[in-house]
Amino acid sequence: MPISGIGVSVQPQFLEKVKNEIRNNISGEVARTVGDYLVVVLETETPKEMEKKFEAILQLPEVTTAWVAYHSVEDVAVESSL
Amino acid sequence: MKFNRREFIRHLAAATAFASLPVGLINCSKGKSEYPDDVPLDPNLSWDKAPCRFCGTGCGVMVGTKDGKIVAVAGDKLNSVNKGLLCIKGYSLPGIVYGEDRLTKPLIRNNGKLKTASWEEALDLVANKYKESIQQYGSDSVAIYGSGQWTITDGYAALKWFKAGIGSNNIEANARLCMASAVSGFITTFGADEPMGCYDDFEKADAFVLWGNNMSEMHPMLFTRILERKRNAEWVKIVDIGTRKTPTTQFADMYVQMKPQSDLALANAIARIIINTNRYNPDFIKANVLFQKGKENIGYGLEDKFNFNDEPIEVSFEEYKQYVQKYTPEYVEQISGIPQGKIKQLAEIYADKFTKVVSLWCMGMNQHTRGTWINNLVYNLHLLTGKICEPGNNPLSLTGQPSACGTVREVGTLTHRLPADMVVTNPDHRKKSAEIWGVQEDKIPAKPTYNTVEMFRALDRGDIKVLWIQVTNPMVTMPNLNRYRSGSEKEGRFIVVSDVYPTPTTEIADVILPSAMWVEREGFFGNTERRTQHWKKMVNPPGEAKPDNWQIVEVAKRMGYGNLFNYNPETLDKELFEEYRKFTIGTGHDLGTYEQYVEARGLRWPVVNGRETPYRYTAQYDAFVSKGKEIEFYGNKKTHKAVIWARPYEAPPEVPDKEYPFWLVTGRVLEHWHTGSITRRVPHLHQAVPEAYLEMNPDDANDLRIQNGETVRVVSRRGEIELKVVLNGKGNPQRGSVFVPFFDENKLINRLTLDAYCPISKQPDYKKCAIKIEKIL
Questions:
Q1: Global pTM?
Q2: Contact B247/A at CB under 8 A
């Protein structure tokens, strides 16, 4: 189950709009807002779905750019306490 | 706080993404951070650093492994190339090694069928074939063709095997297809290869001029740095010069649409405006520049055994000034289609002494039948104005492969080269190389043999009989592919291919050797900005796969060159690297020690007393500049000056006509890397762009009554394929021009391309040939 941490650079006047888009239409977690940047966590069933979500963020007209900072493909289906 | 494993990874992902945000903004944020500045990586995994396996940017990646498998990647915050950021291909790094059809055992073809063999059998067969051919037909009947994906020590082993062992210059690499014009541009202008500037320029420049360069897709992390610069400095301008609108264009302040090949005229027009408005820098020119003129009407390399030697003559500044007077805005508008006003606007960016300019390019300028010339002409603009060798003011040629610079250009895995910018035609260079290798000076032939196109022509003719291809896929990438595919399949040829997956090139192989890739082995890559990076082996390769350098050493030993390859297999990479390093010391290409690279996030050469050099030729940074000089282009050994070249506009060899009315431009897409042999194994990348397509201008489509998604026949004088049409996709070509990506082995666009090349760099032009489009009824 892929989990990714994404940095997103947004045109400042559209921060709220982009946050809503990511939360509601892309099912991403906006973990934090720093200036004009968003920290987004994506979790999907498949790598293909992850690619689609990342591409969807990049395609938002108000997004200047986005990048992957962390990407895990570890199988965490069987969850264990640390 | 207690997390389960999934929550823990989510937390780490968020923390790492937070830590990757541009530092300036984090410091400006008012609220107290809930994440630490320095995020520790998951302690349940083993982590180590590596450069990314894909493009020439050289992003730093932290690779997380568990139970012998790669399970996570993170952008390496400590690597100044990408500062913790990764592009979409970073997602794919764990996936590229785990494709279902990895080659895991040597294969030998018998009666047309591939059969599993032992390494002993395969290596003995390869060595015997080389020996037999050399004995019967001479040492130039055998060859090796490698890659900008060769690690530095792979390339060094191959070079030594051929030039010091076999005694042949029949070594080439696929960087001839992508970087050779950049090399010859640097050499003819500065006397030494590779850039004076570095990525630090991205935070210093006021304007970025992209010459035929889709950075948004091809170098996304570097483009992100440019966008960040623009965001923090509103005056910053991005200029996109191209024949096709791309995803880069949407971020440009100015889009300059030009007709193919007319960049030559445009650059001369800018130079003319700079001179005629007295905005050139006479002091800089007097101290640092010479003017030269070379031969003109130099041909296109279309004939077998094409040969060209330039004969430069020195000219004065006044003669150069007169030379460019022809390139008036009016005249250049006719050639290029660029409105005169835009030419003047663009010239102003270079001419204005307060505007720091970085010029950037990649295949658009290099894959060009006048590729050396256009590289020269862009350098002219920086040299005329003195906008060079200082932070934020530099030309920067980008590379497409992870070690096109580190291996092919620096080690010198080309027919005419030796390590550290030395060439086989220079007796002193042969002497130095022979001494380091411990061979007789006359072992290294003084004459270059075949460039890449000529090498495959020689294979077709039968002059080359045995060819080993490593880490590259020429049966997808060669221009005019039909000739070279049939040539390689002719009777009497013996082809060896080392790779990680089956490809169209393994289809023609008599022996297939399974290779270890990326972190399955130790390695070094060298990136665009002269940064050499090392990584350790982190996981085992699948099956019996072995590193390419090990394969070469084993064959060389079997051929009787054991004295040249007497290395400990446990320390092979270290020993090869330290031996190669000897070539660089005191040359201005100086590399650091093996241990320094094991520790560092890469170092930009020259490395002097353990310190890297971000900017070359400038006293402030470069230890090789003579005392008392501010700038010194010491690559030109006699003059210590750079050259401004008088070079003309000349048309390409094949232009659209009534029968073939469209320009064909080929290139890459974001999702696939080069021939797709790796990225097409990653399901989500393959599904994102499953096949090649034809991108065309909607008005042209309308004229031909072609609909979006319709399959058409695309025909050139050399071949034809069928492709689906995409209108208003990611890119939009100008009228009369189409774009087709080359990654798809099932739709080989290079069956149509022309094998014309720049006579100086010998690099083919994949951006210009004539085609027609036929509806399929």
A1: 0.91
A2: no
